[in-house]
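Researcher: Before we compare anything, I want clean individual predictions. No alignment, no superposition, just each chain on its own. First chain goes here; please echo the sequence and then give the structure tokens.
Model: Echoing the first chain and its structure:
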Amino acid sequence: MTTLLLPIDGSDYSARAVDYAIKRARAARDAVQVQLLNVQPPITTPHVKMLIDRDSLDQYYRDESETALAPALKALRAANVSATSHSRVGHAAEEIITLCKSLACDEIVIGTHGRGGFKGALMGSVAQKVVHLAAVPVVLIR
């Protein structure tokens, strides 16, 4: 079985990465398992932490991740591709690499740009860092 890690941020690039994973799964001889990941940036502003309790903040992170992951999960399930979703809070590239190692993923499939991507750049900073840090192949989807 091949395990793909697919970071999702709600961008058009990550939607195209889902399409790629579906095509890859259909063409594969062996089973393909997709591990979806959404990473929420930590809210570190002291004022927010004074006004919002930890449980509410955690619920906010969960809600945001579920919203970002839902279309990808729906598309993968409709295509009969096995998928599991994961949510993390932290710095995206580091969380991607950590989950990739812990799940023993064979490959990372990531959009070249995220939601805040600078259109003129060849590759976004998260994708660039993942390529630099990954110990497995990284497929960049444009």
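Researcher: Okay. Second chain, same rules.
Model: Second chain and its structure:
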Amino acid sequence: MEWLDGAAVRGWAQVAGELLAQAAPRIDAVNVFPVADCDTGTNVRLTVVGGAGQVAAVSGEAGAGTVARAFASGALTAARGSSGVIVSQWLAGFAGALPDETAGPSQIAAALDAAATAARDAVALPQEGTVLTVARLVAEHVRHAARTGADVSALLGPALGQARHELARISAEHPVLRQAHVVDAGACALLVVLEALAVTLSDPRTAASLDWLPEHGVGADELAAWRAAEPGGAYEVMLLVRPGRPADLGPALRTALMRVGDAVAVVGSAELWHVHVHTDDPAAAIEAAHLGDRSQVVVRLVEGAAQQVAAGDDLGLVVATEEPGMARYFATGGAVVVVRSPEGPVTPEHLARAVADTATPHVVLLAGDDELAGPAGAVLVPGVALELVGAPDVLSTAVAALAVLGGRGTAAQRADEAQAAVARLRTADVDVWGDLAPIAAALVEEMAGDAQAVTVQHGPGAAFDEAVALRDWMADAYPDVDVVLVGPVVGGPRWRIGVD
């Protein structure tokens, strides 16, 4: 091939997705940095597949730069995890430096330089020995090859061979990777993406070899030890931020998010920014990102984020809610949580993305209020059996989630149990100050003398220590009743008590 054109970029996007599907399990197995959550390969695969989906919508006559920008744009929207965010920004840097129509060796080399710089700029605290180092070294090798006369078809092969050869040495520069005796998972994922480009440029009929990928990952006991020692935030928050008018929000978003968490990555352009952070306070992170219109807000546990499985089986749980303060509650139970922001609705596409993130074939989707029921009913994810449970408010959503997590049987059976629990639920709103215990006891007796579960929701003006004290009092007063505390909730009464 003499030039990188639109057809080649289109083929690259497709091959990259296919290779990552094969490589993801082996990449996931060595993922200990920045968090040992075993999902880097999966996250980059979902990111690249999202980019390839947008490429499919571009005219077949489009040139290299046009198709590459579509690839990067789709990857930006689809990005998962810090690794996906970094790769999406690498693609954006590459696309931004390409000519619209075709690119020769020197132009591809310049694009790889721009990609490496963009990837580094995506991370608040860039570190050597990682994907960022590999991106830079590949760009340097390709730049040298272009200067010495290599044609397009032979441009990437030697550079990738050198990068694979040096991968262990590069990874050993990072203390975490050196101690774990593994190579950087993000670097492996980027090399697979580059391998797809090399194959496309040389001979698309040639099968790429993935034999260089690590054969063995980190053992289960060692992985558990790494997770226990990690000081970072327990929850992953990702969302899109669209400025009211085009603006460079990157620096301000990074600064705001570093105050509430770590593993901060912010990528995008003047029109749209993708935000990633690990935090112990998802609501604070969502608020910190309010520098524009927020959408596609997703919260999940960092540990095993690509495999959020309710109750330890093959059932996934997705919860849609309008309450940021409840995101931590639902995610702790094993749900992928979609938070509706005040600036924009939750779409079926947002919910479908969350369903895919469960990485399970059977998913229960809880729509947290009537406005979310419509988009939830339109969700369709190939290969996933989806059960929808409607709940009119936060309290009933919490009750339904507990029914799913504590239930047994198939997804359909647990969804039926959850819907039945919502139907049985009796609630009372209390807007008093002072000693709530006697009022709560009277309400419980009035609503159901034979109650099996009581859920207490605390809202505006209700201090957390008051809520804990009430829960403890009720647990003592009703020793045979499960008492659960949920909140904080921004909307609604000071207290809402539900009895089942």
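Researcher: What stands out in the second chain?
Model: The chain has 19 helices and twelve strands. Additionally, Confidence is low (pLDDT under 50) at residues 305-309.
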